[in-house]
Specification:
Elements: H1 3-14, H2 33-49, H3 58-73, H4 78-84, H5 92-102, H6 108-118, H7 127-140, H8 145-154, H9 158-167, H10 174-190, H11 193-211, H12 215-248
Helix pairs in contact: 6-7, 7-8, 9-10
Length: 249
C-alpha cells in the first residue's frame, strides 16, 4: 500500500459520524447526582471528539454556543426534555450548573415545596380531583393529613371555603370536607342564573294566575254580592226578632 493510500485509509478511520460518542438520552425520572454527572461527562466527551471550528467574531461564538445547546437538548427526553425547553444559558459552565442542580437530590425538596405552595383550585375541578392534586404533591414532601387538609381548605374559592368552615366541625375528616365541598359545587351548578330566572318566571306566572281574578270569577262575585243585598232587609228583620226573644227570656 502506498503512502497516499495509507493516509486516505487513516483519514477514513479517524472521521467520526455526527452521532458517535453521543450519550444515551437522559430522561431525568430518577433524581440521582451520579446519573446526571455521568450524562454530562458523556456529553463533554462528545464535544471533545466533535470539536466545532474555532470562531472569532462575537456573533459566530454565540451561534457556536447555541449549536452546543441544541446538541445537548437532543441528548434529553421525558422530564429532562421538558425542563430544558425555553431555558436560557449564558455559558457552557452555566448549562452544566443548571443541569446538575435540577437533577441532583439537593434541589428537589425546594422545587417540590414551591410546587406545593403554588397549588390553587382550578375552576371546574371536582372536590375529589382537587384533593388528588394536593395529595400527590404532598406525597413528594412526605406531608401528613394535617398539611393536606389545610392546603385543601385554603385553596378553595372564598364563598365555598366560608360555607364549608361554618358547617364543618373542627374534627371533620378530609372525607367529610370533600363531601361538603362537592355538595356546595353541586348546588352552585343547580342554581345557575338561567335556572334561577326560569324558576322566578314560573313562580311569578303562578302567583299572577292566583291573584288576578278571571272574567268568570268576577261575574260570580258580582252575582253573590247582589243576592246578599237582596237578602239584607229580611236578615235584619230576623235578627231584630231574635233579639226581642232573647230579651224576654
Amino acid at each position: 500500500m502506498s503512502v497516499s493510500e495509507q493516509e486516505t485509509s487513516t483519514s477514513v478511520v479517524q472521521k467520526h459520524r455526527p452521532t458517535d460518542f453521543l450519550p444515551s438520552r437522559f430522561q431525568g425520572d430518577v433524581i440521582d447526582a451520579d446519573l446526571a454527572e455521568a450524562h454530562y461527562l458523556g456529553f463533554e466527551d462528545y464535544l471533545e471528539v466533535h470539536k466545532l471550528p474555532s470562531q472569532t467574531t462575537p456573533e459566530a461564538v454565540a451561534e457556536e454556543f447555541n449549536e452546543i445547546c441544541r446538541i445537548f437538548k437532543r441528548t434529553l427526553k421525558g422530564q429532562a426534555r421538558l425542563w430544558i425547553e425555553n431555558k436560557n444559558f449564558s455559558t457552557i459552565a452555566d448549562l452544566r450548573k443548571q443541569f446538575l442542580a435540577r437533577f441532583s437530590p439537593g434541589l428537589l425538596p425546594t422545587l417540590n415545596h414551591r410546587h406545593f405552595t403554588a397549588l390553587s383550585y382550578t375552576p371546574g375541578d371536582t372536590a375529589q380531583a382537587h384533593l388528588a392534586k394536593i395529595s400527590k404533591a404532598a406525597a413528594q414532601l412526605s406531608y401528613g393529613e394535617d398539611q393536606i387538609r389545610d392546603k385543601f381548605i385554603s385553596t378553595l374559592p372564598l364563598q365555598c371555603r366560608s360555607a364549608v368552615l361554618m358547617s364543618a366541625s373542627p374534627q371533620a375528616t378530609i372525607a367529610d370536607l370533600v363531601m361538603k365541598v362537592q355538595c356546595y359545587f353541586d348546588l352552585q351548578i343547580q342554581s345557575q342564573p338561567t335556572a334561577s330566572s326560569e324558576l322566578f318566571m314560573a313562580m311569578h306566572d303562578k302567583a299572577s294566575s292566583v291573584q288576578t281574578p278571571t272574567i268568570s270569577a268576577s261575574s260570580e262575585i258580582h252575582e253573590l254580592c247582589t243576592k246578599i243585598q237582596e237578602l239584607e232587609p229580611s236578615l235584619i228583620s230576623h235578627v231584630g226578632q231574635n233579639r226581642k226573644t232573647i230579651q224576654k227570656i
